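ARCHIVE RECORD
Type: protein–small molecule complex
Small molecule: thymidine-5'-phosphate
Source of inputs: curated submission
Record status: active
Notes field left blank by submitter.
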Amino acid sequence: MEKRDELYRGKAKTVFTTDNPDYLILEFRDDTSAFDGEKVEQLARKGMVNNKFNHFIMEQLSAAGIPTQMERLLSNTECVVKKLDMIPVECVVRNIAAGSLVRRLGVAEGLELNPPTFELFLKNDALHDPMVNESHAIAFGWASQAQLTEMKRLTFAVNDVLKPLFENAGMLLVDYKLEFGVFDGGIVLGDEFSPDGCRLWDKDTRTKLDKDRFRQGLGGVVEAYEEVAKRLGVPLS
Ligand code: TMP
Ligand code: ASP
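STRUCTURE (tokenized, with ligand):
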């Protein structure tokens, strides 16, 4: 597979075309951003850790029957993925209250949510990723009802796989964000699953092991990501 042109530069990843129109290369950079790109820093090793972590998680999901765009690792910071037509709506499941839910509804951080909640957000930094609902997505043509139904089903299926995976490694999967796209007419999980886009707490101490360390200036960001990887048995180099 030959790497060609830069197609898109996101906040933490760069997307490259390849000699095969059905495949792209994702490069995970060390850039770490929060608050819709307002706070940005370079954190050494983060690109490598997230690339390998994401590959490991996508393999677990794929083995559980969830369609993902992952093809293979290419290098420490790159992987090969199927080229999806991305849907600009983010799916968030919460098992425990934190982040914007706490701010929006005034509930206590740490409140267990049973059943877990499901929310949609429009992927738009300029508008600060506003919360939207299915009728918005359909009215504005971001996704069809059938696509939204499948995205919701797959987002909960991911919870069924990952909640116990993290729990068995001594961690609580507090919440996470997924992005989907279309490949050959079907809904496929795209983007990444890493501590940049989810919340993970130590099960006993509730120490934060995710991007909240960066958002809240707690330090030890990449060290926490490496700890998560180590507990799951993700091979890092
Ligand atoms: P929130 O509490 O800020 O709404 O975020 C919920 C979870 O989803 C949290 O783990 C962060 C993740 N997320 C992103 O990574 N990017 C986003 O644009 C959004 C809206 C959420
Ligand atoms: N969409 C947010 C951002 O731009 C998510 C976050 O704060 O991590 O970074």
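CURATOR ANNOTATION: The helical segments are 46-63, 99-105, 134-139, 145-168, 212-215, 221-232.
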